[in-house]
Amino acid sequence: MPHKISNRLAQVVDALPLKDGIRVLEVGCGTGIAALEIVNRVDNAYVLAVDRSPKAIAQARKNAQKEIEKGTLKFIRSKIEELEVPEEEGSFDFAFAIRVGALDGRHPEIEQEARKRIARLLKKNGKLFIDGGNPLKESGI
After folding, report:
1. Where are the beta strands (DSSP E) in 61-121?
2. Which of 93, 94, 121, 134, CA to CA, is 20 to 30 A from 15?
3. Of 72, 84, 71, 90, whose CA–CA distance to 116 is shortest?
4. Coil, strand, or helix at residue 99?
5. In whole angstroms, what is the distance from residue 51 CA to residue 48 CA?
6. How much is the pTM?
7. What is the number of H-type helices and E-type strands within the chain?
């Protein structure tokens, strides 16, 4: 069954610097709709998608069985401030987060740790995009 992407989420994906072979970290992926859109839109893309909710991750995995089997998409259940990723995952071209409480300024100590964990997973010039722009803004790591 094809996934249904909202207009807002489609605008977010459209605003990302996507290109063939891109490696993306999605923080707060929910049921995985944006991650699915990326790997189905871009050749040789890989998305590692993370969410703290066991229910959301279970639904995301159910929605993306084909992409998971192909190796283009992987879901991890974790709080971003506690994220541990196996070294063989490699690094990512950029990360993005939409409506993620750990990155919205309300919890500075959690946000500091979350940003450190994200920064460790990005390539040298990797960037973090968060909501709050039109529709995204680049956020310093």
Report:
1. 73-77, 92-97
2. 121
3. 84
4. coil
5. 10
6. 0.96
7. 5, 6
